[in-house]
Queue: 2 jobs
Job 1
Amino acid sequence: TQSTWGELNRPVKRKMSRSRSRSRGRERDRSRRHGDSRDVDRRRSRRDDSRERDRHHRSRDRRRRDSSSRSRSRSPQRRRSNKSRRSRSTSRDRRRSSSRDRRHARDRDRDTRAERESSKSKQQSPSKADDTPTDMFKFTAAQIAEHQVDVLNTRYKEGKIDRKVEQYFECFDEENVCVSDLFTGQHIHSPAEFKARYTTISRESKHLKVTVAKRVYLELSKPEEPSFCIDCQQTEGLIDSVESDPKTVTSNVLYRASSNKINKIYIGTDHEGLFENTSLTQGEFEQTNLYKRVVELIRQDGCTGDIKIHFHNYHTIETIG
């Protein structure tokens, strides 16, 4: 009976196990096809963990950047803290700090003593400090005359004419300069008329050319007295009014200069033909009426120093090369 019962029961057990295995296989296939909820949760948890790690890393980098920027902005505080730290470390050695203090005290005393002496020297001689800029450079009448001729001969563009006028009047004492006739002494132009005339000449004379054939620099023995210069010159392309035509003028000009400015001009016609005389010498020039008139004007100006002549005839200058 037992064997028959066992035999009867055995197939049934086998069938149950097969059905269970089949049901488990079906469930496994279904989970593979449609996805198991536990696997989905597991994948979600992994994804959330990775996101959390990335967020943590980003926040950590942000904190590092903020801390580095704060450390840079607090560099003065760090310097102060380092300074205090150094002071604490140096205060441990009393002998070393006292010697350094003595050295600093000596330096301070030396600096204050030098400042005191310099202030005393300035108070004792204020006139020298005031006169230094004016006495540093002293230009003669010949040098200033040469510069103003160069300015007149320089051709400027249309938009730069004002610069030419400005450079030209830098050579003159605009408030006091006056123009007179060389031989009669008659007044020709006031300072305002002189400025208006030469402004017109600079603007209208597009092809102006000034040629100096002889220049005579008259140096006086007394340095406080003014200097004088004579130019035998010819001006081509001169337009002295808006409606006039260009013309050529040959003249003798006497310049009087003091304080690095020309303040008197004497103009006369070249009646003796000194401009055209290519072989003129200094001895011959001293015998001319022009030179005698110039000496007379210098003495009328109140100058009593001896006159030393520097004669230059540009027709006879040797050309090297």
Job 2
Amino acid sequence: GFARASGSGAGCWGQGCTTRLAVRCARTSRFPVGGACVNCARVRDTRGACRPPARATKLVGSEGPCVIYCPSWGSDLRKAPGLQHSPLGRSCQLLLFDARGTGRSDSLPAPRWASPRMAVLADDVADLLDAVGWPRVHVLGCSFGAQVALTFASRCHERVASLALVNSHAGGGESRGADKPVLLAHALEDMTVAERMRRMIALADLRRDEAWFASPQGAAIVRFAVKQEEEIAHGVSPPPAGTPTFAPGFVEGRAWLLAARRNYDLRDKLREIGSALAGRLLVVGATHDGLVPPGALEFMHAELLEGARAALPDGAKCQPAAELIWMESGHWPSVTSDPSFWPRVLGFFARSCS
């Protein structure tokens, strides 16, 4: 399981406060996360940035390489199926967490959070690694989580043993064309959870046409996804009738995350990241993904590859400087039909350890 922040001790930087929070890992013992105050809810670390007072975490496995998974927008550790039950969870020491604004992590931004920036989310990753005592780690992210992972690599590349980016891009525009609208948080106020989930499910895999939705398999997947999301969105099941009432922080927290992504653009940093992580880069695309802008993933890989090739010594030119693989799947290949996804990702981590 996972635990909210708890505990006490000296060390808050807040005015007149003397208490501190800690995050507890279900597999190990509690560990402090820098200066989170239960009274004023202010958190400051050595970078001087404000932090939320709680982060829900799950640490899986006791053997194998250390891997942190940066979750996608809307992820929640309460949802099933979870990565702890995947081949990754069975092969690695895997750190999972709910990003601020989601799940059981602090989800109420005002007034104590820093202004929305991807750098804040990347620093959250660094704080969690400090908390579990991992100086260096393999980093995996999908979708929005891959953008957080890429931002973390741009700020703390010395802590990245390898970097795997799944179905994402380096910024410069979320959508190209009116047929691919961005799923903004404020749209939650104008549609039901069921409508939003159906739209996301359709865009995540372009093979899902009306016949798929009408099939027993498609209908069952939609019912299951909608039920989970409604329980989280409204805090109760079944959801209230009439005008939806969202659980405290559900809309605000996710809106903060999307606001952080609004100015996300690392295109001019890609060659620098590629140079720092040459031979330890993997980009994964999906042939049926309808959420990543066309050409954006290929551009990200090409720029990473250019920087990585320049950094590899002549004797290492035979090794892949930055790998690109395509899955016969939708936006989330770990749960959509391509059985080669996990073996290829695990193989990449194994090669990066050698």
